């Protein structure tokens, strides 16, 4: 598994929070923090936990636009790559 995918997802979420409108900036920062916690607990991460976070990101993407939406998309891509690696483990 590539924990760096979780780090990349967190970084993209931090980028998204920096460019976001006030109404979702805090939610994006919170999601980034959650991915930070996942990074330090990779031995505990399972499909259900990751799917919950991916669903949150998809909901945030629906609320975002422009650069923020693009950054959330990239975060989702990194998280999905990690999930694929998780499936193979």
List keywords for this structure.
85% helix, mainly alpha, 0% strand, 89 residues, 4 helices
Task: Offer a quick outline of the entry.
This protein has 89 residues and is mostly helical. It has helices at 3-19, 22-40, 47-63, 66-88.
Note down, in words, how this protein is organized.
The protein has helices at residues 3-19, 22-40, 47-63, 66-88. With 89 residues, the chain is mainly alpha-helical. The protein has one domain (3-88). It is elongated.
Separation, N- and C-terminal Cα atoms: 7 Å
User: How many alpha or pi helices?
Assistant: 4
Largest sheet: none
Q: Could you give the count of β-strands?
A: 0
Overall structural domain count: 1
Low-confidence stretches: none
Mean pLDDT: 92
Helix-strand string: HHHH
Radius of gyration: 12 Å
Which shape, going by the Cα principal axes? Answer: elongated
User: Portion of residues in helices?
Assistant: over 70%
- Structural category: mainly alpha
Task: Give the percentage of residues in beta strands.
Answer: under 5%
List the helices and strands and how they pair.
Blueprint: H1 3-19, H2 22-40, H3 47-63, H4 66-88
